[in-house]
């Protein structure tokens, strides 16, 4: 009888050692995989923004975004979240109908988006000298930037983020 229980106990001990070994191997593999080159999405606080005024396509503001020193992150290929005031009619809408490629930012690499403050014809609109800007989905951390010039705002639109500023021109429809 004793040998039967001893054999059973030995099998249980062997199974326990094997389970621990497999768990350790799986944990080591998971840790190695999690240390890969995974780049996280950019938040508004990860970036610096610069605005410049452009005359092409009837006039627009070019937004240049760069990662802060020591930060590597990616911008999703959608338009930035922006508004010229607190009213819903001053929030930008997409100028593009698709999603662009994600852009990894680090060091001097920049991403560009174009914001046209007035996508309508006519003389109506509201005057603004500041814009509230954030990465889409991170609106609680929006930054307020002074515009290079006062803008008349009526149904503003923005392009997606692009790696080439020439692709960030919000052409009128």
Layout of helices and strands, plus pairs?
Elements: H1 2-34, E1 40-41, E2 47-54, E3 60-67, E4 73-77, E5 81-83, E6 93-94, E7 100-105, E8 110-116, E9 126-134, E10 143-153, E11 157-158
Parallel strand pairs: 1-4, 6-11
Antiparallel strand pairs: 2-3, 3-8, 4-7, 5-9, 8-11, 9-10
Can you offer a commentary on this structure?
The structure is a single chain. This protein has one helix at residues 2-34, and strands at residues 40-41, 47-54, 60-67, 73-77, 81-83, 93-94, 100-105, 110-116, 126-134, 143-153, 157-158. The chain is an alpha+beta fold and 173 residues long. Strands 2-3-8-11-6 form a five-stranded mixed beta sheet, with no helix packed on it. Strands 1-4-7 form a three-stranded mixed beta sheet, with no helix packed on it. The protein is globular, with a radius of gyration of 26 Å.
- List segments where confidence is low: pLDDT < 50 over at least 5 consecutive residues: 1-36
Enumerate the strands of the largest sheet in spatial order, edge to edge or round the barrel.
2-3-8-11-6
Q: Major β-sheet, in short?
A: 5 strands, mixed
Number of strands: 11
Q: Pairing-aware structural class of the strands and helices?
A: alpha+beta
Amount of helix: 10-25%
- Helix count, per DSSP? 1
- Mean model confidence by pLDDT: 83
Share in β-strands? 35-45%
- Distance between the amino and carboxyl termini: 89 Å
SSE run: HEEEEEEEEEEE
Radius of gyration of CA atoms, rounded to a whole number = 26 Å
Which term fits the overall shape? globular
């Amino acid at each position: 009888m004793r040998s039967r229980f001893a054999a059973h106990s030995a099998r249980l001990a062997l199974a326990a050692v094997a389970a621990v070994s497999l768990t350790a191997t799986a944990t080591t593999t998971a840790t190695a995989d999690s240390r890969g080159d995974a780049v996280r999405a950019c938040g508004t606080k990860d970036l610096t923004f610069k605005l410049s005024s452009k005359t092409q396509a009837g006039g627009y503001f070019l937004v240049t975004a760069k990662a802060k020193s020591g930060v590597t992150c990616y911008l999703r290929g959608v338009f930035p979240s922006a508004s010229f005031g607190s009213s819903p009619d001053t929030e930008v809408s997409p100028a593009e109908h698709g999603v662009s490629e994600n852009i990894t930012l680090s060091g001097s690499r920049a991403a560009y988006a174009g914001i046209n403050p007035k996508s309508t014809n006519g003389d109506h609109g509201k005057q603004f000298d500041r814009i509230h800007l954030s990465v889409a989905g991170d609106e609680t951390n929006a930054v307020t930037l002074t515009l290079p010039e006062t803008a008349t705002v009526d149904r503003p639109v923005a392009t997606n983020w692009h790696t080439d500023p020439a692709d960030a021109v919000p052409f009128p429809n």
